[in-house]
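User: Show me a protein chain along with its predicted structure.
Assistant: Here is one chain, sequence first, then structure tokens.
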Amino acid sequence: MMARAPQITRLAFAVAVVFAALLLLPRSAAFAAPAVAIYRGEAPAVSATGRRIELRLSADGTMTWLTDYRNNRPPITEEGRWNAISVEEIEVIVERRGGKQVEPFAVRLLKQGDTLRATGVSAAEFGSHGLLLKLAKAAVPPIAAPATAALSPIGVWQWERLISSAEKVAVDRPERYKLQLQAGGKAQVLADCNRGQASYSFDGRSFSIKITGITRAACPAGSLSGRYLRVLETAVGQRVKGENLFLDLPADGGTMKFVRAK
């Protein structure tokens, strides 16, 4: 048993290096091939077999979720993206199933050593025993070209939806919920029938915003004005991908998705 200790130590070190690389590498970096970490596990079911699950995380922010129901049929393939909520917690968001677009849903996973464990509401979706995935493979290929600078969130954005493991909120009129992030840390906010100002800051992926003044008009029934403002101020992270801005919320709060205003 003692002879295996150096091998175990090297494996643990490799796992730590790979996960750190996946969290810290910019999403816009150019790779010869995507760095991949593969996690596998099983989710209990009423039947004795349960589900076999494989999660593949790529360094470009994409992910693949494979579920084998052990019913003599091919595994179900779901695809989407993932992002780091903190050094120890990630969120995976499923956007396609079998190559077709689906209503996005999120799963929060806590990293514990070489395992990922579903947390909070996400865990309940996998039964009373939750979900535990164990690292099966990790590889970080060489970077083919220097990383480019992260895209700036400065601009005018319209709120499209809130995606979390607990709920999905689609905004019927995104043009009524705007966020204008200006240079110098100032922002303008449109929340349905209310307008206001805010101050914000970001450093890499981190983000924070505080409403400094807002009108108090009574918006029509069904308005998301109050919800929008409350959730916006809890944002702790930001990512820009193409014409979309994602503001990540703490714990099981999920992600606010914005689209660039035309």
